[in-house]
């Protein structure tokens, strides 16, 4: 296991996940009867301040269809939580126009790299281009000075 599981923290995430699904109108329980669903939901809502008891609620009342999706969600949240602790692994998201995303996707595929690597490559190319332009301007000035000096000497 790459990321440490913290029971209290993850139980809180599971409670949040279940309550969100319930509020979105999804049946999170294994029950069909409305009164049984409502009883189970009331029990869940009372567990907000005792997250470790959520595990028992999940074993007793949660719909089996929800199990896999919740595991995936918690796994992703755990990864984001631990990656956020380190600057080098903390992911950021940006909004791109579709055409920009498409061009970046094509470039990344051609280079066989990730979007992040493609962006870094483009930035490096731009930096090199700027450096070359500065050197060319400097050489151009030197050539003009040399030309003006040689014309004055020659006349």
Describe this structure in words.
With 155 residues, the chain is mainly α. Helix content is 72%, strand content 0%.
Attribute tags:
single chain; 155 residues; mainly alpha; 6 helices; rod-shaped
Radius of gyration (CA) equals 30 Å
Distance between the termini: 82 Å
Give the biggest sheet.
Answer: none
Structural class: mainly alpha
Order of helices and strands: HHHHHH
- So how many helices? 6
Helix content: over 70%
- The averaged pLDDT comes out at 86
Beta-strand content bin:
under 5%
Question: Could you outline the blueprint of secondary structure elements for this entry?
Answer:
Blueprint: H1 7-23, H2 34-46, H3 54-61, H4 64-83, H5 98-111, H6 115-154
Quick description:
The model has no long low-confidence stretch (mean pLDDT 86). The protein has helices spanning 7-23, 34-46, 54-61, 64-83, 98-111, 115-154. Helices cover 72% and strands 0% of the residues.
